[in-house]
Amino acid sequence: MPEELAATAHQFEDLAQQHEADELGMWVFLGTEVMFFGGLFLGYTVYRHVYFGAFEAGSHLLDLLLGAVNTSVLIASSFTMALSVYAAQKGRKKTLITCLILTMILGSVFLGIKGVEYGQKFHHHLVPGYDFNPEGNFPAHMSLYFSFYFIMTGMHALHMIVGEGLLLVVLILAAKNRFTAAHHATVEVVGIYWHFVDIIWIFLFPLLYLIGGR
Amino acid sequence: MSSLTVDEAPQAASHVHYLNVKFGVKSWLFTTDHKRIALLYLASITFFFFVGGAAAVLMRLHLLTPGGLLVEPATYNKLFTVHGILMVFFFLIPAIPAVLGNFLVPMMIGARDLAFPKLNLLSWYVYILGGLFTLYAVVAGGVDTGWTFYTPYSSTYSNSHVIAAALGIFITGFSSILTGLNFIVTIHKMRAPGLTWFRLPLFIWAIYATSIIFILGTPVLAITIVLVALERLFHIGVFDPALGGDPILFQHMFWFYSHPAVYIMILPGMGVESELITCFSRKKIFGYKFVAMSSLGIALLGFLVWGHHMFVSGQSMYAGMVFSILSYLVAVPSAVKVFNWTATLYKGSISYDAPMLYALGFIGLFTMGGVTGMFLASLGVNVHVHDTYFVIAHFHYIMVGGMVMAYLGGIHFWWPKISGRMYPQGWARFAALVIFVGFNLTFFPQYILGFLGMPRRYAVYPAEFQVLNVMSSAGASILGVGYLIPLIYFIWSMRYGPVASANPWNAKGLEWQTPSPPPTENFEEIPVVTEEAYDYPVREAQVA
Amino acid sequence: MAGHIVSIKLYALIFITLLVMTGVTTAVGYVDLGRWNIIIALAIAIFKASLVILFFMHMKYAGKLPRLVFASTLLWLAILITLTMSDVLTRSWDHPPQGWQSLSTSGQR
Ligand SMILES: [Cu+2]
Predict the structure, then answer these.
(1) Residues lining ligand 1 (ion), CB within 5 A?
(2) Are the beta carbons of A199 and C52 separated by less than 8 Å?
(3) Of B258, B220, B212, which is closest to residue C80 (Cα–Cα)?
(4) pTM for this prediction
(5) Domains identified in chain B, total number
(6) CATH of the domain at B76
(7) Which residues contact B124 (CB under 8 A, 6 or more apart)?
(8) Complex ipTM tops 0.85
(9) Range of the domain at B245
(10) Which residues of chain A, if any, have pLDDT below 70?
(11) Fewer Cβ within 10 Å of end Cβ, chain B: N or C?
(12) Per the domain annotation, does B519 fall within a domain?
């Protein structure tokens, strides 16, 4: 297949080897991402253990309903991403483009809701290092909880933004007819990344929003 | 038998190879050829080595007299910080993987290039960018936290350019990650037909194990640095005891990476060592599988011992005991390697070419560094010599005596392949000797100084320590000259050195089966491997 | 690896399960169950993440290499957290030597 040959980079023997390398590369990269967030999970675990009361109190200041809605939005975006890969595998360009756009919209909705939540925190003086002065009585060192809240969700949002950028690239490539049913590793690899960012949130949600019962 | 063969035809290599296929600055800055990227790294790493070395020379000059000779104590703090940061993050960690690894991994496994050539080039640019940030921090006034950036000093109190330097290290970390990722995928997916895992050269095993550490350790350092920077910028309290934070948590996160980082430095050196020892004893390596597996063992066990840096930090003494025991454990795979190398030497027909002199130096110096590491792993002794020159001497025996020796040995070994030229053997042997003598004179007195109680990172010291300090400084100047000699003759050889044959050492390994210097895609035809590594002809039975 | 096509039906089933589990974990968040809150919440999170990894990310159909990468990452993460917590959890077992306390309370320093 001359088309396949053209798509194979010179260092590879064939397209299959190239796909395998791309996919393994993405998994290894996600390994580094796990360890990157792992440092944050470690800090979280330590301080949650030391200042449990403060973490519980801080957690109850979050909007659980908004968090749950946002989790669902992100899961929906993962679903449409999975459908994008499906469409690419079947070589259906239109479906692929639709699903990619849907994924990007859902991702933006997630970031929007996150922004609303951030706004609330600023409004309630719950931003450590900038304006931490919540009303009423609260346990000592509750600011540490909010430090982790902002760093963890902020890092996650940063990864979402990167993901949106990657999706945009895939979208443009799809519009340019760069993918075929046989050759669409880019869609799969970006998909794996997007799902991974989803998984991080699946853990952030209980860790941040669900400390102790309300 | 002279193992050095030179092409009969004295004219420059006439074939088209990776060096003469294209010319001009652009052909280098936009190259995706792993061999050219290796040379870009070689140049930049050499630069940082000599800048970091200059800081060390200034420090040793300053310590000639008890009151300090040259600089203010505050400047002295900045000197040891620059020395540490540049040497650790910009020389020791990338040196063998990014230079020799880049050059050799595809050739040793019979591939045309790494799996992701563009990522490989990107990693060099990322490295340079990180280097620029760090140099900026130095030029703008320096950093005084030490390369370890301990909190809360670094995050709250230090008045120096912590963020710029930390950012430099953060960025450089990504170049490590990209390099490691590239190697792992390449070694898994691009081996030549017939090249099974247990036929791989041991250098590849070492690089593979190193890549694991790159991949799983570096990100933790990255997030740690982010937290320090955030703490410094916004005062969020993560490491500040005044706000409920725990400075010891920083040390956990930092050493989770930085202890394994020691193995990032030494593992590739061990890989080089295995190649050199077999080639110059003309014997198959003793216990191939043990050497290969010990690399993986180090990659895993190396992550279990970081608390031995924290015995006096306020860490729980129960954790300290666990870390102490685990630290003893990690000596086992290193010892396995040393014993296997010596067993390989046994009854080998050894030739003392320059690379072999470095290799032999490595065994001795690394062993001394490793054994004193055992002293430090034991809780009680550690408390006595903690933060003294004993520690300095210990890790310089590992990093300079071990890693730099192996790196130089490797450069001497593969230089004919890299440049297509030979260097003067006499000078190279002489330099090896000078470095060995200079090194021991510099650092052995520091063991004694530390044992007598001289603390590290002080700009002044009591008068009774002067003799040993002068010895150390004298050694440092010899060592400095020793490092300059190879720099000169390597540059000389690029133009005037005799042309090297494809396999000047009669070594085994795929990289020697292709011309020197190799063509851009390494091999005319992808080789098929049918034998184990280091299949040197068995010597005829000795006449009884 | 690439090539295995998961049916839309299965994708939809996973999607609905994920939504339901999100609802369940949120509902449990409104009840105070003591230490069981975190156990249930994390168990549900692990279940959800497994579904995403196995089906959305095609780990179920991938070779053993991605699994190996994934498993070693989790092992390393466990090392990081376990060994650090071994310090944090046992730090309060230590007591400063008696001499210190008497020194500081007697106002010598
Ligand atoms: Cu260590």
Answers:
(1) B 259
(2) yes
(3) B220
(4) 0.93
(5) 1
(6) 1.20.210.10
(7) B37, B40, B41, B44, B98, B175
(8) yes
(9) 37-513
(10) 1-7
(11) C
(12) no
